[in-house]
Amino acid sequence: MNHTANAGAVKPSAKIKPQSKFSIVKGLVYLLLAVLFVTQLYPLLWLLIYSTKTNEEILSGSFFSFPAVPQWVNYQTAVESGNYLKYLYNSVFVTAITMVCVLLLASLVSFAISRFKWKYGQVVLLIFLIGMMIPMQATLLPLMIIFKNMHILNTHASIILPYIAFQTPISVFILSGFMKSIPHEIEESAIVDGAGVFRIFWNIILPVSVPPMMTVCILTFINIWNEYILAATFISSERLKTLPFGVNSFVGQYSVNYGGIGAYLVLGALPVLVIYFLLADKITKGMVAGAVKG
């Protein structure tokens, strides 16, 4: 009986060590996450504080101090003087058209490359991978000549088409890699039931491919929303400019409204943050749904 009691007494002490070790690892993980959270969140908080300061407070060099009186009027100035609503509409229009076209083209190409057995499938994939290595700046002059001959220069089409071309390769790379992992038995059973190619793509492949498609949406949205070089090269009309151009409205010949620039940057980053968190939640749900279906 005593031996049994002693053996029973040893077991709780044996469980304490793994638990204490786990708590140390857990604490280190929390510490790392806290450091990442602070380093990622701090620039946004600093920009928010920056946007509520006067020019005198900003130029005084006290970057980490709070404003004596928050200048919320900077946001009103950003909306009115920066043509925020007009540029916001142009950015939403261009980004939405680009995202829809990229998702449609990339999903169709990825479906053909990953699910069809044809001779030049890997060659086509290699061509798209080469497209990922072409720098955007190297295409400015050829695109300028092409768009001028096509008479679409200074239109939204002149930036939407390059956006689609530059975002499609990385999207094909992401989607094709995921679609290759989908079991072929799913298609074979659908073909036995009389499903055609389009029905297999629309009713089987696309629902399972929700997670990578959401990833493509996030990458496309962020890259297009903040793009400036192509838009500055091909767009000269004031009514067609996108959101990044609004910062120029606060830079005059003899003065700069730094508080207005900060407020405009906050308003410009706000849609990105909202869309990111909305799509991030959908990615998590899509991953769970895909795992259950798989």
What can be said about this structure in brief?
The chain has 12 helices and no strands. With 294 residues, it is an all-alpha fold.
Topology:
Layout: H1 2-50, H2 55-59, H3 73-81, H4 84-115, H5 121-131, H6 140-150, H7 157-179, H8 184-192, H9 197-208, H10 210-225, H11 229-234, H12 258-293
Helix pairs in contact: 1-12, 3-12, 4-5, 4-7, 4-10, 5-7, 7-10, 10-12
What does this molecule look like?
The structure is a single chain. It is built from twelve helices and no strands. It has helices spanning 2-50, 55-59, 73-81, 84-115, 121-131, 140-150, 157-179, 184-192, 197-208, 210-225, 229-234, 258-293. The model is unreliable at 4-11, 13-20 and 286-294 (pLDDT under 50). It is mainly α. It is globular.
**Strand portion:** under 5%
CATH architecture call: Orthogonal Bundle
Order of helices and strands: HHHHHHHHHHHH
Structural class: mainly alpha
CATH class: Mainly Alpha
What's the name of the CATH homologous superfamily? MetI-like
N-to-C span: 52 Å
Shape: globular
Main sheet summary: none
Beta strand count: 0
Mean pLDDT: 82
Radius of gyration: 27 Å
Uncertain stretches: 4-11, 13-20, 286-294
